[in-house]
Amino acid sequence: MTSATAPEPMSDRTIRIAGVIEESIVDGPGIRFVIFTQGCPHHCPGCHNPQTHDFAGGQEVAVSRLLADAQANPLVGGVTLSGGEPFCQPGPLAELAEALRRGGKHIMAYTGYTWEQLLQMDDPDVRALLRQCDVLVDGPFLQEQRDLTLRFRGSRNQRLIDVPASLAQSRVVLTDCAHL
To answer: With contact defined as beta carbons under 8 Å apart, do 29 and 78 qualify?
Structure first.
């Protein structure tokens, strides 16, 4: 009889969040746990979450608590990192996403940065967070390109990027999330 490997202990790092949605079907494929990070430098006109812009707002929550909450519901197949701007807190989010992926969760993130801008950042935590994402919705929300018919995004400039394929091929590979 073999015993399961004990999970690695989580650090005591925190993430500043605006809130969570425990079950969502509109923030990515399937039933998802959504974390709205607090703080955003983009301030896109018409933003769906303007209350998340203030970097001093929201509350600090331990990575371990978010992990436990996201894993609590067995019907949740994925976790979406939204905002605010998740890539303003890439270190603790990468740690959380890595633990969630080990637990079998699909990881999706929204960012106001483009894929190309993220790759140009000289921040190993940004790369670490990207490596943990399955799908990335990139680019700022542009009110003049708003389109309610788009799946999982708000404006036509935003892309649904298959992150593992894009990293492997060193080019943007799009997905429609239909296979997920």
So the answer is: yes
Taking only the tens place, the pLDDT of each residue in 19-72 is 999 999 999 999 999 999 999 999 999 998 999 999 999 999 999 999 999 999
Q: What is the pTM of this model?
A: 0.93
**Closest of 164, 180, 10 to residue 93, by C-alpha:** 10
Signed CA dihedral, 47, 50, 56, 60: sign only: negative
3-class secondary structure, 68: helix
- 13-24 burial, b if ≥16 CB within 10 A, otherwise e? ebbbbbebeeeb
Placement of tokens 């603790």 in the chain: 92
Retrieve residue 131's tokens: 């490596």
Q: Are 43 and 99 in contact (CB under 8 A)?
A: no
Beginning with the edge strand found earlier in the chain, give each strand of the sheet holding 159-162 in spatial order: 59-62, 14-24, 32-37, 78-82, 106-110, 135-138, 159-162
